[in-house]
Amino acid sequence: MSQPPLIETAALCKEFRGGIRALRKVDLKVAKGEVVVILGPSGSGKSTLIRCVNGLETITSGAVVVEGRRVDGHGPRRWRQTRLEIGMVFQNYALFPHLDVMGNITLAPCRAKLMGRAEAEEEAMRLLGIVGLTDKARAPVASLSGGQQQRVAICRALAMKPKGMLFDEPTSALDPEMVGEVLATMRRLAEEGMTMICVTHEMGFAREVADRVVFMDRGEIVEEGTPAQFFSAPRTERARQFLDLIMRHGA
């Protein structure tokens, strides 16, 4: 019997106040170990989709399923459990300014009683080693560059030992010279088999790392395919328009 997708949405709809329809019956399946990059213009529903997957937005209708278990409609406790299994990295880092780097990484696993303090700190140092920041373990987060803060945010999510990761435009708030160090960390995660859904405008990353590209517009999945197919021969006029605009602006 084949394994169920790690993450699945079925006919997912999200409507905000005022009748704004952000998602329109979105069906998406992400297999274990798969890297899916979601592309699309601003306002297309990309970030709303992954926020619904993690329970940060209340869905209007449809379903969110993780490893074959429906997680929506079961209250806050089920969503808290889901967030232990599916980590998320935001575009604005969302680090705790009153804690140092070590404190930011160890807080959640200790509070969730996944591990004791000593084990959590050992794991934090291992993760900081992966992203090249062991010398910043006791540094105040305010002393770090944007790229360093985002790498700490990735370590914080990984400290919970998630089965999958969601990235919501993790490089959009960074200066251009800092983007590469964050993308390098994400590439390494992909190479190690981490299941990832990435909302990004980084076309090079999508070409190199994604197993599948999903293109959204107006709250719907318009097209999806391999990076080679999507970037060389998009099937829909809307995707072609989007790529033409990106190319004209030198992305």
Summary tags:
single chain, 251 residues, alpha/beta, 6-stranded mixed β-sheet, 4-stranded antiparallel β-sheet, 9 helices, 10 strands, 39% helix, 24% strand, globular
**Beta-strand share of residues:** 15-25%
Structural class: alpha/beta
Order of strands across the main sheet: 6-7-8-3-9-10
Q: Percentage of helical residues?
A: 25-40%
Strand count, sense and barrel status of the largest sheet are: 6 strands, mixed
How many separate helices? 9
How many beta strands in the DSSP annotation?
Answer: 10
Give Rg in angstroms.
18 Å
* Outline: globular
Low-confidence stretches: none
Average pLDDT works out at 93
| Gap between N and C termini | 42 Å
What is the helix/strand order? Answer: EEEHEEHEHHHEHEHEEHH
What is the topology?
Elements lengths: L6 E10 L3 E11 L4 E5 L6 H8 L7 E6 L2 E2 L5 H10 E4 L11 H11 L5 H14 L15 H13 L5 E5 L7 H16 L3 E5 L3 H7 L2 E6 L2 E6 L1 H6 L4 H12 L3
Parallel strand pairs: 3-8, 3-9, 6-7, 7-8
Antiparallel strand pairs: 1-2, 1-4, 4-5, 9-10
What can you see in these coordinates?
This protein is α/β, with parallel strands linked by helices and 251 residues long. 39% of the residues lie in helices and 24% in strands. The chain has nine helices and ten strands. It has helices at 46-53, 76-85, 101-111, 117-130, 146-158, 176-191, 203-209, 227-232, 237-248, and strands at 7-16, 20-30, 35-39, 61-66, 69-70, 86-89, 164-168, 195-199, 212-217, 220-225. The protein has a six-stranded mixed beta sheet with strand order 6-7-8-3-9-10, with helices on both faces. A four-stranded antiparallel beta sheet has the order 2-1-4-5, with helices on one face. Helix 3 (101-111) packs across helix 4 (117-130), helix 3 runs parallel beside helix 5 and helix 5 (146-158) packs parallel to helix 6 (176-191). The N and C termini lie far apart (42 Å).
